[in-house]
């Protein structure tokens, strides 16, 4: 599993004449690394979920994981997650922007005007396999259309064979599938079902986003 990545390996260039430095924070159970600003960003009311890029994998995995993320966002009530199609983006030129890894303020403002969104959740599926063990690699970032800044970002690869992942999948199953008649080993379904594994990863990913958005500045020091 990868360690925390430097946010600007994404090469996000927003033309605002400066950069925001994100700190690095371990994710839930230390399996999802993520980065966030020192201070919580403005509240997001509506965020566009644009189609995820794929790096040598079929579109179904990317589309399915985007829907799992949307479900996790809705479940936590973070903001309205608005799925945007490629057709809706034709004249905004985001496709070439994603290929370059850059998003201009003009792109973000165009999305804000057209869809009434104050943020954009974008990213890519970097790895996807089901054999010999399920593995999913994801790179994501949330951009603020109002400031052009990165509000949250994550780059990770989870493998069902990783003991930490397996342990947290067990915790996830116990919370989400409370059935008194179930077998003691039914949590292993999460580790062998691609659909359930994507749901698990989406839940843990959005949990880190929830933490990042709810973070508040430390109170001012009382020292003279």
Describe this structure in words.
By secondary structure, the chain is α/β, with parallel strands linked by helices. The chain has six helices and eight strands. The strands form two sheets. Strands 3, 4, 5, 6, 7 and 8 form a six-stranded mixed β-sheet that branches. The radius of gyration is 18 Å and the shape is globular. The N and C termini lie far apart (45 Å).
Sheet with the most strands, sense and barrel status: 6 strands, mixed
Strand content: 15-25%
What is the approximate shape? globular
Number of helices: 6
Radius of gyration, taken over Cα atoms and rounded to an integer in Å: 18 Å
Q: What distinguishing features does this structure have?
A:
6 helices, disordered N terminus, alpha/beta, disordered C terminus, two-stranded antiparallel sheet, 224 residues
Per-chain topology:
Elements: E1 22-25, E2 34-37, E3 46-49, E4 53-54, H1 59-76, E5 80-83, H2 94-100, H3 105-115, E6 119-129, E7 135-144, E8 150-159, H4 163-176, H5 189-192, H6 194-214
Parallel strand pairs: 3-5, 3-6, 4-6
Antiparallel strand pairs: 1-2, 6-7, 7-8
Concise summary:
This protein is an alpha/beta fold. It is built from 6 helices and 8 strands, in the order E-E-E-E-H-E-H-H-E-E-E-H-H-H.
């Amino acid at each position: 599993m990868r360690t925390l990545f430097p946010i600007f390996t994404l090469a996000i260039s927003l033309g605002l004449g400066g950069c925001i430095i994100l700190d690095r924070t371990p994710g839930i159970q230390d399996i999802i690394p993520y980065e966030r600003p020192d201070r919580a960003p403005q509240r997001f009311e509506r965020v566009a979920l644009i189609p995820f890029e794929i790096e040598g994998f079929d579109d179904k995995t990317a589309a399915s994981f985007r829907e799992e993320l949307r479900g996790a966002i809705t479940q936590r009530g973070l903001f309205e997650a608005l799925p945007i199609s490629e057709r809706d983006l034709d004249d905004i030129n985001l496709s070439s922007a994603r290929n370059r890894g850059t998003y201009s303020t003009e792109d973000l403002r165009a999305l804000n005007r057209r869809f009434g969104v104050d943020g954009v959740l974008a990213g890519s599926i970097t790895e996807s396999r089901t054999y010999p063990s399920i593995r999913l690699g994801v790179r994501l970032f949330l951009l603020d259309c109002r400031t052009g800044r990165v509000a949250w970002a994550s780059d990770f690869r989870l493998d069902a064979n990783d003991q930490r992942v397996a342990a947290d999948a067990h915790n996830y199953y116990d919370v989400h599938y409370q059935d008194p008649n179930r077998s003691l080993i039914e949590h292993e379904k999460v580790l062998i079902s691609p659909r359930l594994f994507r749901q698990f990863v989406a839940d843990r990913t959005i949990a880190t986003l929830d933490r990042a958005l709810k973070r508040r500045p430390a109170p001012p020091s009382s020292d003279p």
